[in-house]
Amino acid sequence: MRTLALLLCLTALASATVYTSAATGDFKGDSTWGGGGHPVAGDTAVFSGAWTVTLTANGACAMCSSAVFTGTFALTTYKLNVSGNLRWLTNSDTAFMTLGVSADSGLVVVGNVTVGARGKVTCSGASKISCAGSWDVSAGTFTKSTSTVTFNATSSGKTVKSGSNEYYNVTWNGSGGEWTLQDDFVQTGVSAFTLGTLILNGKYYRAYYAQTVTLGSGFTLNVGTGSYNTNHQMNLTVPTGATVTISAWGDMYVGHLTISGTGTFTATGVAFIVVVGNVSITSPNFTAGTSTIANRWGAGTVSSTQPLYNYTIEYGVAITLGSNLTVQNTFTVGTGGNSFSAGSYTLTVGGNFANGDVFNAGTGTVIFNDATKTTTVSGTTTFYNLQCLTPGKTVKFEAGQTFTVTSFDFTGTAGNLILLDTDTGASTFTLSDATGTNQVEYCDIHRSAATGGAAWLAYTVDGNVDGGSNTGWLFAPPASTFNPLLLSGD
């Protein structure tokens, strides 16, 4: 069997022919190649001279251009299958060579595509190119028109190098395929991420087209330390079977972000994720790492069944909470025309709560819950229910600011008091409630002015400590008015 396979291979090699262009004419015309035949599947076509070669019917070859070619090869409306590598190179220092791919035509390359200096691949209309190997047009010129380039490798180790060239429509669709960017990649048309793995490798992937992209089941977008920037126009959905990974210093800029089903989204380190519209995370496979999700430049709703790490709104946005939300570290409402509306939901914050603009509490609850972090509450804010039931937690309020509540529920435990103080350890902060009674337990309170008309009870018999410089708090129960003589009738 091995002998037969070797014979078949040698026979195939022996039958392959190298054809060199010798005249202007049809790619499938013998005279174009000096007579004696023309390239077919398995043959090599070498372009040389200043000729214009035209494809007038579907053709095939294994094509390599390494001679001095200063002409044009036009595919017109037909398809060329290249079973090996396409090397569109020239060693001329003064003249260009052009490969023209017209609307409705197609260039299919099973191997690598390389376009060298002074080489041109010019697409016109909705032409189509597919490449199953590596792609390098960085030294030459690629004119995109409204073409579609499909990367359809089925094995790992493929590289993509674009230089300053841009693309229009791009499709990544190869089962088992893996592509690693070697430089920044820019496209202005439709994106499709169907099968395979795209590794940004610390580079920028810029996609400027308003659309919703749903990653295919089995597709991995490895942002890593790179930047996936859609100019806030592209909505990204990560469904069941799809994966996004982003690491320290990597960033993403998208419209709506949806992570659904069992889609996997893993952030590690200080990754930065900017969303212009809605954030919807329902997959259990979302891992925040120490990343920041930022809503910017537009209205939206944020909903997540999984904890975020840092969450911020900035640059003139109006955000509505669509579900209970946990922010493990810092929650920020930035300055400059921003508003966050909690509705009836619970916002749990482990670290700082920074309100630089409008926080609409609704009838929701804000909870401070991580004993390993000091929470600093800054910016005058009106809360509905403000709660901390985490023993040993430290909560510091911005000095000189007023924090208004409808309900204030802080409860620690013996030996693990909740500490309340100003952020500076000086001056005072004000808690205000118009009516009712707020009673805390096992709290160590410093520099707090309790006002507004409600009763503020921090009885020492309930484990509370008057840390000093407090006003409005009642640390001792009122003296008893009970008189046992009244019971005897004397």
Strand order of the largest sheet: 18-20-22-25-28-31-34-36-39-42-45-48-51-54-57
Measured as a percent range, the helix fraction is under 10%
> How large is the share of residues in beta strands?
over 45%
Q: Which structural class should the secondary elements be placed in?
A: mainly beta
Alpha plus pi helix count: 2
Rg over CA atoms, rounded to whole Å, is 34 Å
What integer is the average pLDDT?
92
List keywords for this structure.
disordered N terminus, 58 strands, 490 residues, mainly beta, disordered C terminus, 4% helix, 15-stranded parallel β-sheet
Nutshell version of this structure?
The protein contains two helices and 58 strands. By secondary structure, it is mainly beta.
Q: Your description of this structure?
A:
This protein has 490 residues and is mainly beta. It has a domain at 17-196. The chain is built from 2 helices and 58 strands. The longest helix is centred in the N-terminal third of the chain and has 14 residues, at 2-15. The relative contact order is 0.04.
Present the secondary structure layout.
Elements: H1 2-15, E1 18-20, E2 25-26, E3 44-46, E4 52-54, E5 59-65, E6 72-74, E7 79-82, E8 86-88, E9 97-101, E10 106-109, E11 113-115, E12 119-123, E13 128-131, E14 135-136, E15 141-143, E16 148-151, E17 158-161, E18 166-167, E19 169-181, E20 185-187, E21 191-199, E22 204-207, E23 211-214, E24 219-224, E25 227-229, E26 234-238, E27 243-246, E28 251-254, E29 257-259, E30 264-267, E31 272-275, E32 279-281, E33 286-287, E34 292-296, E35 300-304, E36 310-314, E37 318-321, E38 325-327, E39 331-333, E40 339-341, E41 346-349, E42 353-355, E43 358-360, E44 365-368, E45 374-378, E46 381-382, E47 385-388, E48 394-397, E49 402-404, E50 407-410, E51 418-422, E52 429-432, E53 437-439, E54 443-445, E55 448-451, E56 455-457, E57 465-466, E58 473-474, H2 485-488
Parallel strand pairs: 1-3, 2-4, 3-5, 4-6, 5-7, 5-8, 6-9, 7-10, 8-11, 9-12, 10-13, 11-14, 12-15, 13-16, 14-17, 16-19, 17-19, 18-20, 19-21, 20-22, 21-24, 22-25, 23-26, 24-27, 25-28, 26-29, 27-30, 28-31, 29-32, 30-33, 31-34, 32-35, 34-36, 35-37, 36-39, 37-40, 38-41, 39-42, 40-43, 41-44, ...
